[in-house]
Amino acid sequence: MDLLEKLTILSDAAKYDAACTSSGARRNYEPGKIGNTSSSVAGCCHSFSADGRCITLLKVLMTNCCVYDCKYCVNRRSNDTRRAAFTPRELAELTIGFYRRNYIEGLFLSSGVLRNPDYTTEQMIRCLEILRRDYAFNGYVHAKAIPGTSEELVTRLGLLADRLSVNVELPSEDGLRTLAPDKTKAAILRPMGQIRDAVVQSKAELVKYRHAPSFAPAGQSTQLIVGATGDSDRHILNLTESLYRRYRLKRVFYSAYVPVVENTLLPSPDTKPPLLREHRLYQADWLLRFYGFRAEELLTEEQPDFNPLIDPKCNWAIGHLDQFPVEITTADYETLLRVPGIGPLSAKRIISARRVSHLRFEDLKKLGIVLKRAQFFITCGGRMRSGLRYSASTLVRQLESIQRGELPCDGTPVQLSLFDTAG
To answer: Within a 10 A sphere around the Cβ of 419, how many other Cβ atoms?
Structure first.
């Protein structure tokens, strides 16, 4: 099998891994080294850096041979598919060749489990050692730490990569036992804890010693598959919050399950991937990370799943109308963040602008507020937007229509009072 055939097979096998990001890493230019991370080829994917740039990564597996038989995975042991494997030298030369041709700006490396986790990780480490030392590659590398790998090998991998990730994949332990019997919760969480501790220790050493080796400077991430099991959005979001808190993850990625294999324990092959559900989870994830929300606020036992027609923030606001409307001219930063249509940047702009001028509704749109949603939940100078009247019952319908794009962006006022419950 030639190199192009291997690349075609192993890049296609990597496409279901969504945990692909380059945010947070910084490797400045160094004399004698190639590349840095400060600033239509098979296997290339697009990601975004911390400063918002779109960059291209070579996203590929070391091998799609796997001793595990996870029922949801296209690379599982029992699946009849073409198998291939790069040697460490082949993949290193392929990566540096693509980089020199300006096809890519970094590498996203994962793998099936060949023989056992330690052997597979050793192959990945050898590839990265060739890249970093033989070719002096200083670009971005995201590597997957395989559950069950020894601590020594995870440490070596983290010293070569900018970011590590350990995929949780299935949100519940019952799901793992049913669909991935070769994996355990303990085997997945153990390397996550090790990576967390090593990152903290590395940062402390860099404060004391300028040239101390850096361990996974961009931290770690993980991926959760959505829709392969019957786990609710509430269960997934609670798990997400716990992972952020306990393991200091940079990102949790959500991947709508794509039926690529047929099994009685999985959704049927003609089932559409739950892409809207994935989108709602990403929106809720941002509320946890940047808006000060907690998982228990967004979903309850009575409402365990997100409303597919309304984004999570609007859905929360509708259930807490007693906290609205919010007065734009006096509300603090945390309160402004709770208003649908107002994000961290626009909230800071509001606080800054109102120090020097009297804000009007006409000014809010210039500050980046999405008025088509925010107008229902704010007052400006003690007044709501002119002509805007609605009730709790009609508010839901209006927001659904706005998110479907059926109403103009500036909103269409309806002649109903905010407190007219008969509405």
So the answer is: 10
Measured CA distances, 309 to 51, 207, 306 (Å): 31, 48, 9
Whether 18 is covered by a domain: the verdict is yes
What single-letter amino acid sits at 142? H
Indicate if 286 and 354 belong to the same structural domain. no
Q: CA-to-CA distance for 400 and 404, rounded, in angstroms?
A: 6
| Nearest by Cα to 251 from 194, 198, 289, 301 | 289
Residue 307 lies in a domain: no
Q: What share of the chain is helix, strand, coil (3-state, %, to 5)?
A: 40, 10, 50
Q: Which residues pair with 106 in a beta bridge?
A: 57, 140
Cβ neighbours for 319, distance < 8 A, ≥ 6 positions apart? none
Domain identity same for 281 and 344: no
Q: Is residue 422 part of a domain?
A: no
Separation CA 52–CA 188 (nearest Å): 31
Model pTM score: 0.86
- List all residues 6 or more positions away from 264 whose beta carbon is below 8 Å from its beta carbon: none
In this structure, are 49 and 126 located in the same domain? yes
Sorted by sequence, the CB contacts under 8 Å of residue 80 that are 6+ apart come out as: none
Q: Are residues 109 and 210 in the same domain?
A: yes
Provide the residue count of the chain: 423
pLDDT (tens, 9 = 90+) of the chain, 423 residues, equals 889 899 999 988 888 776 655 444 555 656 666 655 543 344 455 555 555 556 688 999 999 999 999 999 999 999 999 999 999 999 999 999 999 988 888 999 999 999 999 999 999 999 999 999 999 999 899 999 999 999 999 999 999 999 999 999 999 999 999 999 999 999 999 999 999 999 999 999 999 998 899 999 999 999 999 999 999 999 999 999 999 999 999 999 999 998 888 888 999 888 899 999 999 999 999 999 999 999 999 999 999 999 999 999 999 999 999 999 999 999 999 999 999 999 999 999 999 999 999 999 989 989 999 998 999 999 998 988 887 777 777 888 888 888 777 544 444 433 333 333 222
Q: What three-state secondary structure class fits 275?
A: helix
User: What is the total count of domains within the chain?
Assistant: 2
Where in the sequence is the domain holding 286, given as residue range(s)? 3-263+273-290
Q: What residues form DSSP beta bridges with 164?
A: 143, 220
Distance from C-alpha of 58 to C-alpha of 105, rounded to nearest angstrom? 8
Closest alpha carbon to 121 in 160, 84, 94: 160
The CA–CA distances, whole Å, from 32 to 29, 140, 214, 376 equal: 9, 17, 19, 58
